[in-house]
Specification:
Blueprint lengths: L7 E4 L4 H17 L5 E6 L14 E5 L5 H15 L3 E4 L4 H8 L5 E5 L10 E3 L9 H6 L19 H11 L5 E4 L11 H10 L6 E3 L6 H11 L4 E3 L6 H9 L3 E4 L7
Parallel strand pairs: 1-2, 1-4, 2-3, 4-5, 5-6, 7-8, 7-10, 8-9
Helix pairs in contact: 5-8
């Protein structure tokens, strides 16, 4: 039997939008290195984004909310046991740099301003403000070529996701609105969402989308709007089921946050 190609591990334990953007690198590796198994490490709660992705062998999960640092040490032991050929961290935080630096992988890749970058075998710049998109910035860790617009994020919806969204999509034309963000500075003010809801065609149903933490804010918005056909689905659909519903919408109104990606 031919020797098994050592796997690659991608680390992205930030928020939903960051994981979505990281899927562009998953697509790139699947195209360039189809024989190399690929695992991805994410924070607990984001693993659903990668369910059904045919290019991801295994999703590792870091629980940051409960026993954060004991779980980090457990993850390092788990990573070292796999004997990865390459570990790539897409973050500049010390925690993921620590996992990369001491992973035992022959190839350890990350951004130069990670506190543990001195232990990386390959370091790339992380420049903000020069017009470089995050997808291109991530790709720069593994390639020096300009991939242009060919590198795009991609989610793989399961039949269960489509089935969960189907009853809401069956109404015909509809709109989706995701009014919240984990970053308050990226969140459109509630009074402006109310103005938008009042201006939208009254005949079109509107679905409010978000995760369980967004349910209360979406309900408050729905109560204040008093708009017929406005349905709060925050916390009721999975990440991919929400994406499935957005795919069929006439228009989607979102913040500069995960739903936009």
């Amino acid at each position: 039997m031919p020797p098994t190609t050592p796997a690659t591990l991608l680390i992205q334990t930030a928020f939903i939008g960051d994981v979505i953007l990281a899927t562009a690198l998953v697509e790139y590796l699947a195209q360039r290195e189809p024989a190399t198994p690929l695992d991805v490490l994410v924070r607990r709660g984001n693993e659903g984004l990668l369910i059904g992705n045919p290019h991801v062998r295994q999703v590792l999960i870091w629980d940051k909310k409960t026993k954060k640092y004991p779980n980090l040490v457990r993850l390092l032991r788990q990573i070292r046991q796999v004997h990865y050929g390459r570990v790539v961290t897409l973050q500049r935080f010390a925690s993921t740099g620590f996992l990369t630096a001491f992973s035992g992988a022959p190839e350890r890749v990350g951004f130069a301003d990670n506190p543990f970058s001195r232990f990386f075998t390959r370091r790339g710049p992380h420049v903000i403000g020069n017009g470089t998109h995050e997808v291109q910035r991530n790709a720069g860790l593994l390639t020096t070529g300009d991939l242009g617009s060919s590198l795009k994020p991609k989610l793989y919806l399961t039949t269960a996701d489509a089935a969960a969204a189907a009853p809401y999509a069956a109404v015909g034309a509809y709109l989706c609105l995701a009014p919240t963000s984990v970053w308050f500075t990226k969140q459109y003010p509630e009074e402006k969402w109310l103005e938008l809801l009042a201006a939208l065609p009254p005949a079109l149903p509107v679905y409010l989308l978000g995760g369980p933490p967004d349910a209360a804010a979406c309900e408050r918005l729905a109560q204040a709007a008093q708009r017929p056909g406005l349905v709060n689905l925050a916390g009721k659909l999975s990440l991919l089921a929400s994406a499935a519903l957005m795919r069929g919408a006439v228009l989607n109104y979102v913040n500069d946050s995960a739903p936009m990606h």
